[in-house]
Amino acid sequence: MKYYSILITLVLLLYGCKKSNHIQKKDIIKPTTYSVNEIESLYGAPKGISLYLITEQQDEFRTSVLNCFTKSQRRSRNIKVMEYTWQTSRSDSLLTVWYLPSMDSLQMLCYLEYSIYNLY
User: Fold this and answer.
1) Sheet containing 105-115: which strands, arranged edge to edge?
2) Which of 46, 47, 63, 77 is most buried as measured by Cβ atoms within 10 A of its Cβ?
3) What are 93-109's pLDDT values in tens digits?
4) CA separation, residue 7 to residues 10, 22, 24, 32, 73 (Å)
5) Which of 68, 120, 75 is nearest to 99 (CA)?
6) pLDDT digit string, tens, across residues 25-38
7) How many angstroms separate the CA atoms of 19 and 108, rounded?
8) How high is the pLDDT of residue 47?
9) Which residues fall within 8 angstroms of residue 111, CB to CB, at 6 or more apart?
10) Nearest residue to 113 (alpha-carbon basis) of 80, 75, 84
11) How far apart are CA 115 and CA 80, in angstroms?
C-alpha cells in the first residue's frame, strides 16, 4: 500500500510539472516588429515581396490591410505596405503577411493563409 501511494504521488508530480511547462509556453509573446533579416531567417526566403501604397492596391484580397488604418490615414495616400508571401508546409497553401515599414524594421499588420486555388 505504501508503494502505491508513492507511485500516485510521483505520477501527480510529473503531471503537474508537464502542465506548468505547457502554461509557460502559452505565455510566450511573439514580437510584432522584425528586421528584414529576421523575417527571412525565421521563415525562409519568401515566394514574393511587394511594396505598394495602400491606396494603389485596393481589392478583395487586401481588404484586411485597409481595415488596419482609419479613413483619414487612407486618404493621406502616403502609407506604404510591404507584402511577403510564403509557401506553407502544405503544397496547396500560401501565407501572405503585410508589414508596415518603419525605419529599419517591419511592423506586422495582418496575415492571410489561403489555398492556391482561391481566385483573388
Assistant:
1) 33-34, 105-115, 93-102, 80-87, 48-53
2) 46
3) 999 999 999 888 999 99
4) 5, 23, 26, 45, 64
5) 68
6) 334 445 678 888 88
7) 31
8) 92
9) 95, 96, 97, 98
10) 84
11) 26
